[in-house]
Design a protein that fits this description.
This is NAD(P)-binding protein. By secondary structure, the chain is of the alpha/beta class. It has a single domain (about 10-190, about 220-245), classed as Rossmann fold (3-Layer(aba) Sandwich), CATH 3.40.50. Helices cover about 40% and strands about 15% of the residues. It has helices at about 20-30, 45-55, 70-85, 105-125, 155-175, 195, 200-210, 220-230, and strands at about 10-15, 35-40, 60-65, 90, 135-140, 180-185, 240-245. It has a seven-stranded parallel sheet with strand order 3-2-1-4-5-6-7, sandwiched between helices. Helix 1 (about 20-30) crosses helix 8, helix 3 (about 70-85) runs parallel beside helix 4 and helix 4 (about 105-125) packs parallel to helix 5. The N and C termini lie far apart (about 45 Å). About 40% of the residues are buried. The model has no long low-confidence stretch (mean pLDDT about 95).
Length: about 250
């Protein structure tokens, strides 16, 4: 008799889960036995297609604004009503507009910080009462936080992700007391539709050349690290930022 998949019985909630890295994580967690909640903000078609691919017994799609606390509360409520608890929480939804100091507006600042920082912060807060000991929170940063050649246009985005890295370190101390691990994955350039949009083939090759493997990351590369952190192998990893970029940045 074959042994059950390692995440059988686990409930995973991922925001921004219908495309790119979120979709790869969702698919991989489901393949390992988890039941998954696919949060999306506006476009229902990719989310519903993912539910169909995984199977409606093991996946549901919930539309919610991951920057709005009331919407976050509803997202958690609907998840718990469906499956009773949350074992794996990944606040993945985010935006990365190119804004240096001169071109940052107050409205733009609040939008980025709302989705990239406030959303994950309060999602963790609202999910916490429904997360048993042994659960995992996996936040999302970026390898740009350690890239010495980062350009000024990433100021606003990196500001938000710097906050995520500090949230990871301190939240790990807070939730560790409850038996819950908190870590972050920090991807490098990853070949998602969003990343590739508007980039010439020459630029993509240049960016790939920054990596010793001479390629971009794939969404599945990031999903592999997330599933490690979400499983038994990640039980003694807490408060860490895992730079998942194939060696583009080291140290």
């Amino acid at each position: 008799m074959s042994s059950p998949a390692p995440l059988t019985g686990k409930i995973a909630l991922i925001t921004g889960a219908s495309k790119g890295i979120g979709a790869a994580v969702t698919t991989q967690l489901a393949s390992l036995g988890a039941k998954v909640v696919i949060n999306y903000s506006s476009d229902a078609a990719p989310a519903e297609a993912l539910v169909k691919k995984i199977g409606s017994d093991n996946a549901i799609a919930i539309k919610a604004d991951a920057a709005d606390v009331k919407e976050i509360e509803r997202l958690v409520k609907e998840t718990v009503e469906k499956w009773g608890r949350i074992d794996i929480l990944m606040p993945n939804a985010g935006i990365s507009p190119m804004k240096d100091l001169e071109n940052t507006t107050e409205e733009g600042f609040e939008r980025v910080m709302g989705l990239n920082v406030k959303g994950p912060y309060f999602l963790c807060q609202k999910a916490l009462p429904h997360m048993p000991s042994g659960s995992h929170v996996i936040l999302v940063s970026t390898s740009l936080c350690t890239l010495s050649t980062v350009t000024p246009g990433y100021l606003l985005y990196n500001t938000s992700k710097g906050a995520i890295e500090q949230m990871t370190r301190v939240l790990a101390k807070d939730l560790g007391r409850k038996g819950i691990n908190v870590n972050a994955v920090a991807p490098g350039p990853t070949a998602t539709d969003l990343f590739m949009r508007g980039k010439s083939e020459e630029l993509v090759k240049t960016i790939a050349g920054w990596n010793p493997f001479n390629r971009l990351g794939a969404p599945e590369d990031i999903a592999n690290v997330v599933t490690f952190l979400a499983g038994e192998g990640g039980m003694w990893v807490n408060g860490q930022i895992l730079y998942t970029n194939g060696g583009m940045t080291v140290g």
